[in-house]
Amino acid sequence: MPRLRDALTSSARPVLVEVLDDGPIDTMDAEELSSSCRTAGAAALLLSASLLGPVAAEQALADGSFPGPLPLVFDLRSSDLNELPGGSDCPDLASLHRAGASAVAVLGAALLVGGAVAAADAVASAQLAGLDVVVLVGSATDGAAAEAAGACAVVYDPSLSAELSATPPGPAGESQGEGEGE
Question: What values do phi and psi take at 101, rounded to 5?
Fold first, then answer.
């Protein structure tokens, strides 16, 4: 199973493809999606729970071929955590890794809400399970905090509202880490 960090650093312009179709997928659709993304030069695929199994099975067929399998990023943002092994209180990240995920994607606000130490602990837990962490943020401040927590990758999404920022204000009402990571 390829590592996300390796895939992102091996290209000058890595492309993470987010697959938005959450409908039922058959084997033929998974094969076409996976092989098309590999051939087009994608660095990794961001997938929902319904797509992880079928796409992981197809990606395994590319092992030893060129282009080889892509890292699969399990999208925790769009998943019902109650349906995951371990439930919403403590999802079993190791089972996601065994199912074919190389990484998990989370919202910066969700990761950072407990503070820097809790965020670093959450990233370390994912890494212990064999998963890298991709954090989607709406501000440079949250991006810097996610990077400091040990995230493999930080994706800036301007559609994420600044009011979702999880980084607590610093002295005199200024955000901590202002200007970092830009």
Answer: -75, 140
Q: What is the pTM assigned to this prediction? A: 0.78
pLDDT tens for the chain, 182 residues long, are 778 888 888 877 888 888 876 566 776 687 788 889 888 889 999 988 778 888 888 888 878 777 778 999 998 875 544 445 544 455 678 889 998 999 999 988 888 888 889 889 989 999 999 999 999 999 999 999 999 999 999 998 888 765 444 555 444 444 444 343 43
Residue 9, C-beta contacts closer than 8 angstroms, at least 6 positions apart: none
Token pair in block for residue 112: 């950072």
**CA angle (126 as vertex; 13, 83 as ends), nearest 5:** 105
